[in-house]
Amino acid sequence: MALFASEQIKLLAESGWNTCDSVREGVERAGLPLPTAAYLKRTVDASQWERAERAVEALREHFKGARFADETVFGVLLVPDPDKLDTRGAVDPAMRADQTGKTGKGAVDVVDRALPAGRLAVPPGTDWTPVATVTGPTGLHFGSFDDITAADAAAFTVDGVDTRELMVRQIWGARVLQSGSELPDCEVGGGWTFTLFPGEPQVDGKAASGTVLHDKVRFRLGRSDRGIAVVRVSPALVPA
Fold first, then answer.
1. CB neighbours (10 Å) of residue 83?
2. Residue 79: pLDDT over 90
3. Cα→Cα distances 139→72, 81, 128, 157, Å
4. pTM of the model
């Protein structure tokens, strides 16, 4: 097995999907197979890992000059079948118990009531879809939602794909779960950020974003012109 595949399988087998008890139990309740090392070796073939590696390397190369690129970790994210586990918004509060340390009502995700269902970058039909994207705690900085959506497409196009179209809540929500108890965009440790979703339309002139703040996973709406350094994006590719 190629080095990239071996490294990613190890990381995924040790990710929140398998090692964070509340997340793992939620995956099982959703009727999904656990993405263990044995499962990934059995269901993801060599050509898929090769495509994923090319996608990850293409993202790293294209965005190497972006602000905070030296802090951004790219890798493989597993996105679950949205018909079984929809990550575009709130999940079963029980899944958060070992992520945030909260249970019951205290673990309920915060979702702005004005948000629509959200776009699906990964459609139903496949239990787990590997996506090349940011897998570390923080993403890249390109300014505000307005700055990003107004930018020339070439700045975000990788392998013929405008990666802004894949900057959506579904992918970020899966990243939060995969991260287990080491949550992204979280104020714990002093590195609070929030991730914008330029792939989602504005709602009454406001931009959607995701963050983890005060032990709550939050899907929010806010000013579309806010471009301070804590505003981040996570480019993604679904390997063809």
1. 11
2. yes
3. 5, 24, 23, 17
4. 0.97
